[in-house]
Amino acid sequence: MSYVNVVLGDNFASVVSDTQITKSDGTVSEKEMKKFLVTDQKVLIATTGNADVAKRLFDFFEEHQDLQFSAVRMQVAAILEQLQGVTDEDGGKISQKVIVAGFEDGTCTATAFIVDSYKALQVINYGPWNVIHLTPEDYSFDIAEYFGRLRTDKLSDVVAHQEKALFRVSRHSQQVNNTINKEVMLDV
Please, which residues have CB within 8 angstroms of residue 42's CB and are 6 or more apart in sequence? Predict the structure, then answer.
């Protein structure tokens, strides 16, 4: 799994991802995976990394659509902490990055969780007008600079900019295809 981009606005979260799953050996195992879920409670869960871990996360939250934003964050942290010291079927480390975004007190916020089998869970919190990007290991595109040039809060422009970023990454990374999945979550 390779590319996810989330833009937080004052009253929205916009997510764009590719759909390709690339194994650790570089082979493509799937070309049509959705890398995010928006629950009935307007909580966005997006992930890159191990496809089995992603499936476990999505299956859990598909069954628990009623969980509020804070409960989803706690549950994601609990699931990811279980990966400490765990390796994949080939004996390699499991790396997973997860973004949980939602609305708290009328404000769009997000938490990014980063786990590596051999390191402690990292947690980073974000507020409105932040861009969170989960990029592939084989490409070092400075996406923060790219989005720093975005000078609008018009939602359609934000989404168009996200799509252009995905196309740019897909041209340079074998781990990313140019098939777009996208969704906008509004606080209404």
Answer: 69, 102, 103, 185, 187
Which one, of 137, 132, 127, lies nearest residue 147 by Cα?
132
- For residues 117 and 168, give the distance between their C-alpha atoms in angstroms, rounded to a whole number: 30
Residue 45 has pLDDT above 70, yes or no: yes
How many whole angstroms separate alpha carbon 69 and alpha carbon 88?
29
Vertex 115, ends 110 and 121: CA angle to 5°?
A: 75
Closest CA to 7 of 160, 159, 168: 159
Name the residue ranges covered by the structural domains of the chain: 4-186
Mean pLDDT computed over 169-178: 85
C-alpha neighbours within 13 Å on the C-beta side of residue 53: 30
4-186 — its CATH code?
A: 3.60.20.10
Whether the model clears a pTM of 0.85, i.e. scores above it, the answer is yes
Identify the pLDDT of residue 185: 93
What is the DSSP pairing of strand 107-116 with strand 21-22? unpaired
